[in-house]
C-alpha cells in the first residue's frame, strides 16, 4: 500500500508574524515525524497571497520555491493525489478561507471546520455558545472604539479575536481603562472586557478516538496574584537573536501537567467535553479555564488547533498519558479519514 500523502498547509496570507508562527510549529512537526512512512508535502502561503511548494521549511528552500497564484496552486494540488491536509495556519484567513478551499476541493483535513474556526476566533461568540450549554463564564461585554466599560475592575481587557495573549491587559483601576483599550484595539476592532477570576489557570485538551471524547491531563500555568496574575505573550513565544520567532521555554517552572488525582481534573474534563459538544468540535479541541478558590471552573476561551508538534499543548498533554506524537497524529488521521479507508497502522508503520 502506498504511503499516505499528507499536505502541510503552512504560512499566512495576513502578515509576517503569523507566517513565522506557522512555520515555527510546522517545522517542529515535520522534524518530529521525519521517521514515519508518510509522504509529506508542503504548501507555503505568504502575505502577498502567493503559494509556494518548498521541499522543506528552511528559509533557503522557501526562497527557491517558485511563487504561484491560487489557480495554479489548485492545479498543482489536485494533480498530487493528496490524501489529507494538516492545517498549520493560525491567522483567521488560514483557519477559515483556506480550510474552506479544501472543502471545495473535496480533500479532507484534520481539525475543525472553517465555520467553527470563525466562531471561536471571536471570543465573545464562543463564550455565548458555551454559556448557553450551562458552562460558567466570567461576566463580560464587547466594546468598540468610543464605548465605555460598565464592568468595575478588576477586569481583563483583550482583543476579541487575537491569540497568544497579544493585546491583553489586567486592569485593576478604572483609570487604566483607556490605555488597556488602546492596546486591545491595536489588534482588533472590538475588545472584550470581562471580570477577572482570581485563582489557578489551566488548559484542557480533548481528543476524539473511535468517536469517543477523551479528556487529556490538564496543563497548569505559573501565576502569582501580585507579580504575575495573568499570562502574557512572553510566556508563549519569544523573538530569537536572528529575528525569528521561537518557543518560550517550557519547563516545570512555568507550566506543568496537573496530577490526575487532583480533584479539579475530572471536573474540568467534564466541562471541556460539554464545551466540545456545544461548539460542535471534531477530532480535537482545547480550552482555557480559570479555577476560582472554591474550585469552580470558568471558561475563558477556545483554541481549536493543534500543529502536532512536540511543543503543541495537546501533544504535551497526550505524551503525559503515554500517547506518542506519532500515535496522536495517527488517531487524528483515523478520525478524519475513517478506519475503513486506510489501514493506518500499516501505512504509518507504528
Order of helices and strands: EHEEHHEHHHHEEEHEEEEEEEHEEHHH
Structural class: alpha+beta
- Report the portion of residues in β strands: 15-25%
The global form is globular
Provide the low-confidence segments as ranges. 339-350
Helix content: 25-40%
The profile of the biggest β sheet is:
6 strands, antiparallel
Determine the N-to-C terminus distance: 15 Å
Give me the Rg, rounded: 20 Å
The number of distinct helices, counting runs of at least 4 residues, comes to: 12
- Rounded mean pLDDT score: 90
Number of strands: 16
Please give a structural write-up.
The protein is built from twelve helices and 16 strands. Strands 9, 10, 11, 14, 15 and 16 form a six-stranded antiparallel beta sheet that branches. The protein is α+β, with helices and mostly antiparallel strands and 350 residues long. The chain is globular, with a radius of gyration of 20 Å.
Layout of helices and strands:
Elements lengths: L4 E7 L4 H17 L6 E7 L5 E2 L6 H6 L5 H9 L5 E4 L4 H4 L1 H8 L9 H7 L2 H10 L7 E5 L10 E5 L9 E3 L5 H9 L4 E6 L4 E10 L2 E4 L3 E3 L15 E3 L5 E3 L7 E3 L5 H17 L4 E8 L5 E6 L10 H8 L4 H13 L6 H5 L2
Parallel strand pairs: 1-2, 1-4
Antiparallel strand pairs: 2-3, 5-8, 6-7, 6-8, 9-10, 9-11, 9-15, 11-14, 12-13, 15-16
Helix pairs in contact: 7-9
